[in-house]
Amino acid sequence: MTSPKRLYRSKEKKIGGVCAGLADYFDIDPTIMRVLFVVIAFLGGASLLAYLIMWIIVPEEKSF
């Protein structure tokens, strides 16, 4: 039995690890996720606010 997918902030981070964690969760390249966040921010979206909230709420990846 496999464990359910969990969302964590990644240790491979540029700022807070949110984009890398989301990319890992959705199984895509972290650079694509970072570009999406920047594009949405420039288009007037709330990606910066979402990033800050997720930085606070989403737990950091545990090292084993």
From TrEMBL:
Keywords: Cell membrane, Membrane, Transmembrane, Transmembrane helix
UniProt-annotated location(s): Cell membrane
Annotated Phage shock protein PspC N-terminal domain residues: 5-61
Lineage top rank: taxon: Bacteria
Key word Cell inner membrane present: no
Membrane-spanning ranges: 35-58
GO cellular component: plasma membrane
InterPro entries assigned to the protein according to its UniProt record, in alphabetical order: Phageshock_PspC_N (IPR007168), PspC (IPR052027)
Membrane topology note: Single-pass membrane protein
This protein's name: PspC domain protein
Native source species: Aquipluma nitroreducens
Lineage: Bacteria, Pseudomonadati, Bacteroidota, Bacteroidia, Marinilabiliales
